[in-house]
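Reviewer comment 2.1 asked that we show a complete input and output for one of the modelled complexes. We chose the FE3-S4 cluster case, as it is the one discussed in the main text.
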Amino acid sequence: MRLTLHVWRQGGPKQTGAFKRYEANDISEHMSFLEMLDVVNEQLIKTGEEPIAFEHDCREGICGSCGMVVNGVPHGPKDAITVCQLHMRTFADGQEIFIEPWRASAFPVIKDLVVDRSAFDRIIQTGGFISVRTGSAPDANTVPIPKVAADAAMDAAACIGCGACVAACPNASAMLFTAAKVTHLGLLPQGQPERLERVTKMVAQADIEGFGYCSNHGACETACPKEISIDCIAQLNRDLLTASARGVL
Amino acid sequence: MRRLLAFIKSSVGKKFAMAVSGLLLLGFVVAHMAGNLKVFQGAEKLNGYAEFLREVGAPIFGHGEILWIFRAGLILAVAVHIVSAIQLTAQAKAARPIAYRRSVHLEDSYASRTMRWGGVIIAAFIVYHLLHLTWGTVHNEFVTGDVYHNMITGFQVLPVTLAYTVATGFLGFHLYHGVWSALQTLGINHSRLNGARLMSAGVAIVIVVGYLSAPFAILFGVVE
Amino acid sequence: MDLRAGVPPGPIQDKWQRHRFELKLVNPSNKRKLEVLVVGSGLAGASAAASLAELGYRVKCFCFQDSARRAHSIAAQGGINAAKNYQNDGDSVYRLFYDTIKGGDFRSREANVHRLAEISLNIIDQCAAQGVPFAREYGGHLANRSFGGAQVSRTFYARGQTGQQLLLGAYQALSKQIGLGAVQMFPRTEFLDVVVIDGTARGIVTRNLVTGKVETHAGHAVVLATGGYSNVFYLSTNAKGCNVTATWRAHRRGAAFANPCFTQIHPTCIPHSGDYQSKLTLMSESLRNDGRIWVPQANGETRRARDIPDAERDYYLERIYPSFGNLVPRDVASRRAKEVVDGGQGIGELRNGVYLDFRDAINRLGEQTIAERYGNLFDIYQQITGENPSDVPMRIYPAPHYTMGGLWVDYNLMSNIPGLFVIGEANFSDHGANRLGASALMQGLADGYFVLPYTIGDYLAQVKFENDDVGHAAFADTVKQVQEKTKRLLNVNGTRSVDDFHRELGQLMWNHCGMSRTASGLREVLKTVPELRERFWREVRVLGNGDDFNQSLEKAGRVADFFEFAELMARDALERHESCGGHFREEHATADGEALRDDENFAHVSAWEFTGVDKDPVLHREQLEFEYVHLTQRSYK
Ligand SMILES: Cc1cc2nc3c(=O)[nH]c(=O)nc-3n(C[C@H](O)[C@H](O)[C@H](O)COP(=O)(O)OP(=O)(O)OC[C@H]3O[C@@H](n4cnc5c(N)ncnc54)[C@H](O)[C@@H]3O)c2cc1C
Ligand code: HEM
Ligand code: HEM
Ligand code: SF4
Ligand code: F3S
Ligand code: FES
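Response of the prediction step:
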């Protein structure tokens, strides 16, 4: 198949970017979207143009490295997958495809489609953990956890930190990412001692990083490759309310 | 205390203010609608009601005092609501300086997308509405105190009724997302008990129908 | 070259306890003055960095991804072993030890493996306490599955994302320390060389992948936790960024490289579909618990799988290995798959796979149960192939997956360069010639949480030097060499892309140094690789410049190292005149095609010393003693 790509090219953080048009010929529908870009890059290298920079590593939807907005949709048109899992059979021959980076002031562009997501790390650093010294843990079976709770925690823990939620949110809010971690740890008995402290600090950090607020649009949930539910956001709001209420007493 | 301050400063805190003020406004809108419906019971009932509003609390309170207390609360709610709306909207704009070339709406609904403009329209409407039926400034047959007369003569004018219709429509959208959103913001919502969505839809419909029944009844001469 | 393992004396059950007692301790007030450089933030690196920071050391941690959380450990699916015996099915530390030695085909160190089995218990406790959402039974206790040929259920798992959840646990522990300022994290930073001053590791040279700045970091000790080198085959289940650069450059500085030819080919991966293929995707081995592997009896069969009656199917593993059936170890399963495909019974468009069939399991347990067990794996498969495994059997084929070889380390996980420690997949590890499923996560976390933090203290307690020698000439020299290499790559400005060369190298290695190897094939490799390498340096084209974000340049550096490493790998394979575990030499097989070990001459670790590119490396041997597990020919019949 042949495709017409409009790819966002941006030399560096300080420079201004623009869309550039590329023709991608003899693309197989078995290729993954990133393999299609590989092919385009091979051609660019031949013609002496710098290849398109895009983030990727595992190429199987688990590391969270990859991410780009394909025709306005983070990770592309298919639900519940990352762009590295997107296959070309999803597209029609001769289709026009616009490829952009995540757009959020908290995710500054480094080059082309590569953005700096370190803000996510800093949110986790303020409280996205359970404090337990190495070696100080009791036998794992001394704290039974109901299967439902464990499963629900796993649902939230599946977040891969890709940033698609921010990219999709009309307010560029990091609420779903933050809520996923708050919910994962908050559902487990081990997570209780730090629960209120955790949510307070993580939300504060998200604001500091310059993410938008959450107005419950639910676009994040739709874009999330791991189908993290916005119920997590309600959970976060609930915890934050409790935290501040306790703060008064 | 520290946590409380952190909360108030946080975006979620502002959302919380938005939700609470929003729900208060909702309370008013519902009550106000109930009042309006008295127009179907005739002049005495409606005017009596309007009069009652001003006389409640007597003799401890003077004419209109209680009403003013309510109005004060109302004005405060609207103020809080609008201010946090503006702050949050500003934060959102700052968070995405460059828009997407192609924006596909993954958002929930048209309603969720029109909260801001819808809100502004509602605000504008309220101002117009006060000038129209409270102070009569833009009402050429206005008779102070005769609410019934003012409504009848007011809504027999087609453009006026249409203006009200548009405004109430936006209010409906605003509430369709707003009520559900408020529950989510207050952490009450969960998709497993997804009555929330239906409820907000119900509220929106009741409000729109309830409000528009009077103007159209009047327009089509059902009520004179 | 000093290859003393330093295994403590005494009965195997007591060695580690006793050793821990004998290790020197660092005075708490000194810890703050001691700086440790941890390269890598995978299970091994993150757990080590976090634990060392907790102990009070000053820690710097490096990774090439944009976040520590993306280390390749994240991709591990199946599970992690521990001898908890929660299932009461007769498991024990000793049994895990025994299985691992045997599974490794008797090419690993007994003492290390026993330690690993002991520590496996603490790992699960630690991770559960961190909030890793392991699978649970309705009673609320931890669930287990049997995995990768084990006959007891000792594998703990979190859906099909065990590695992700374990890594996030370690990442969160690390994040806490970063938040406290105890660890300084350097993401998007590539390790390019270790600085050795009078024989000891004193620091590292790195490149900031965003600004291109080459920087130096001095430390009292350097820890490499940089993972495996499966990408020498170009196509593997490893992430694209996985590389040999860190370990290879340390090797060039004098660290011995042990058993480079011990690579693991994983039996259950999705067959490739074209030349554009950029990586291969693993389908967790746990699938073999319920899936049955078969090929049509007839060569060049054209019917759809469903239309082929059982009578005309060859469930070859069940046929050849009645007792283990589909659960034979990876190396065996892989080799048998190769046999049938080479024999013309391969299935799929390219006839490059075998079937993994869930029909019977679904009939037995119901679609619901199977979906619960493998749901997300089925989704991944369908995503890639467009086929749904609950209707049509999966197509699978072996692919490079894990590398048992790595830098040589002693019982304290220190390489032969004092002050240079190596943990996780990067060291030559406890897996001998073949790793059992679910034991790499175990080893990575054992090294990082529970071994290195103690053993490194023994070294640090003795270091004399101050840590202010960044000014030392050795640093300047190393930086210069690194910069020159970068300049060279940029200046070739040839005609072929880096990937193009990598693909060619990978093909060569896969054909002659992959699942089965022959002397002639390996000589072929030794002849071709230097030529290819020479061409690479003449014809490669790396655009852009060295002082900004340049992915081609990153790749080029890594591929250049693969080109040097590939030669060593082939040489090691050639020198090992036996078949063992993942290393199968066709000349050394039993009548019925099983690996034939030669314990007389090869019960040793081959540790190679670098003497220069285009110069023959020197082979050193560490003899392996087996006091507890008796050397037997593995048989899974
Ligand atoms: C698809 C797949 C599935 C697997 N499933 C299982 C399983 O079910 N059970 C099991 O036990 N094992 C499994 N394994 C094996 C296991 O995941 C790995 O062996 C283990 O995670 C390796 O961990 P590590 O910390 O040693 O290295 P990695 O996790 O690979 O981490 C390497 C780190 O080093 C950094 N690094 C590398 N090179 C450089 C450099 N030059 N400069 C700077 N930083 C560098 C990287 O950034 C990264 O942070 C699987 C492996 C794969 C590929
Ligand atoms: C469309 C149907 C509506 C009708 C027929 C209607 C009618 C009236 C009337 C007659 C009054 C004057 C009452 C008095 O002076 O005693 C009034 C006041 C008011 N209305 Fe409405 N209204 C309508 C919709 C709305 C809506 C949608 C809002 C707000 C969202 C609103 C907000 C108000 C407010 C704030 C006042 C002033 C109340 C006060 O005096 O304190 N009205 N309305
Ligand atoms: C006066 C002008 C108004 C403006 C400018 C306004 C604006 C807004 C905005 C911007 C939001 C936030 C939407 C989001 O979450 O992003 C909002 C929410 C809301 N508004 Fe209004 N609104 C107005 C009037 C009203 C009225 C009259 C009512 C009630 C009848 C109301 C009820 C609500 C509710 C319930 C919410 C939901 C709060 C939440 O999302 O948590 N608003 N409004
Ligand atoms: S919540 Fe979903 S979209 Fe957001 S970072 Fe996590 S996985 Fe990505
Ligand atoms: S889309 Fe944005 S507004 Fe909230 S619900 Fe999701 S973060
Ligand atoms: S590359 Fe790892 S998730 Fe896409």
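The radius of gyration of chain C is 24 Å. We note this here for comparison with the apo prediction described in Section 3.2.
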